[in-house]
Amino acid sequence: MYSGTVYGGPGPVPSTTPHEAPQVPEVVMDSRMIAKKKRRAKEVAVTMRRNAGQVIHTISFDSILPVTADIMWDCDPELLCSYNWQSSVNGTNVIFVPGAPPKWTPPTLPYTLALDSGIMYTDHNYARQPRFPYTPMFEALSVMNPDAQLLDIDVIADRNNLRTLLEFAQGKAGTFRLNLQQIGNTLILVRSEDRYWKRSNGQGYGHNFENHFTQAEEGMQNATSQYRVIRYPMGPLNVVVRFEADAYYEGPEAEVEAFFAAEATPAAPISPVTGGAAAKPNFNYSAPIQVIRRGLPVPCAQIAELKTSPMGESVICMDQLWFGRTPHLLLGNYKKGTGIFQRVRYTSTRDKVAEWERRQQESLRRLVALLIELRRVLRAEQGPIRAAVLVREEKGGPIHIRAMEVKAPIVALHFIQRHWQPQPPVFRHVRPT
How many CB atoms neighbour CB 153 within 10 A? Predict the structure, then answer.
């Protein structure tokens, strides 16, 4: 948290003429903060360059011609698999399949929360399996959908990867890096960052809100949030999307209205539960993933996104809802500066997302065109592993696809043989009658 000094406080206003601009007080940043920012920038720069060779293709914003097909959420997604990571760490890598997201079980309002603290993970899959982040997904698929064929899947991606590319398709500035790999007809997008955790800045309540307003299902008390893998069409593309589910919600909407409370009602005391671990645990990356069958599948129609914001402020999360095909949004509103949650707003997202979809149609069409172009470039790669590095090195600049200097598979061979190679037909001998 910033603890530096701001110099140049209020004082006499200097006289000015019409041709003179008043002086702006100088803000001097704490030297520790400057050093921290420089170290962080260096870490990011190293990550952007790691294992990235010469440029083999460049894609500018203006070069992407949007596809003509409508890109719409017009059908229910198919749940391929789901799982939770075991949260405790004892030298093993354990997932619960199918697992379960926690159930929305709000306390009586108003309710006071402490600020988030500790270590927060942006993605447990990459934190636990940085070299093979999709392995837990395929382990869960082997249990829940062992005969699933992915030959007709065009793209496999984490929701965050698609959100990143959508921002580029919207013309927004920002730098990023993704690794790309093509298996058969399928383009796989892989996050590539220098770390997949962060220490809470002590300014939000999001994780504590999830902890206190939901309840883990039986057997899931020692589990992280659930990861779900869904399949749906994105215009002309068939996509598989993995995302983290905050909770499941059974409704009806009237129940949420009952959570509203008057400001005069005494707030419940702060609970000691915090949003994250006090220290980063040591993971055993090489330990094999153990699958424990636990939990029950939760329908896509019950998945909810949880958000928090000060009273009177809105949140921006339509792209999250759209890519995750999430039908419910529960927004906790708190009194700014107090942590006192005074109400929860429920939204059935389909209508609002449909309006966002209509306004973002050109960007969504451009995103699909970009994915089609990435698939075309990767198909031209030579060798048994078709892989490359996608980087945007300058804010507002183009995307560069660079050669991957050292290529390594991200999906184990036995998964490829099971899900990408056509299975021979089974012929049964029928005795003549």
Answer: 22
The CA distance from 407 to 57, in Å, is: 18
**Angle made by CA atoms 266, 272, 275, in degrees to the nearest 5:** 110
Lowest-confidence segment of 3-7, 27-31, 298-302, 395-399 by average pLDDT? 3-7
Q: Which of 408, 385, 388, 390 is nearest to 400 (CA)?
A: 390
Please compute the mean of the pLDDT values over residues 231-260 and round it to a whole number.
Answer: 82
Tokens coding 301: 């129609």
| Bridge pairing between strands 155-158 and 237-245 | parallel
Which DSSP string corresponds to 246-282?
Answer: -EE----HHHHHTT---TTSPPBPPPS--SSBSSPPP
Q: Could you say which DSSP state residue 347 is in? A: E
Tell me the residue type at 336.
K
At 314, list the tokens: 């809105």
* Per-position DSSP letters for 349-404, written without gaps between them: HHHHHHHHHHHTHHHHHHHHHHHHHHHHHHHT--SSSEEEEEEE-STT--EEEEEE
Strand-pairing partners, residue 239, are 155, 232
CA dist 404 and 217 (Å) reads: 43
- Which tokens belong to 175? 């730098």
Q: Which helix (H) or strand (E) holds 159?
A: helix 159-169
- CA atoms of 215 and 295, how far apart (whole Å): 14
In the block, residue with structure tokens 């409370």: 261
Give the pairing of strands 155-158 and 399-404.
unpaired
3-state secondary structure of 12: coil
Q: How far apart are CA 82 and CA 302, in angstroms?
A: 14
Using CA atoms, how far apart are residues 75 and 324, in angstroms rounded to an integer? Answer: 13
Strand, coil or helix: 160: helix
Rounded to whole angstroms, the Cα distance separating 179 from 132 reads 12
Nearest to 364 by CA among 257, 235, 215: 235
Residues 117-173 pLDDT 10s: 877 778 999 999 999 999 999 999 999 999 999 999 999 999 999 999 999 999 999
Q: Are 329 and 307 in contact (CB under 8 A)?
A: yes
Listed by start position, the domains of the chain span 69-169+180-364
Rg (CA), the chain: 24
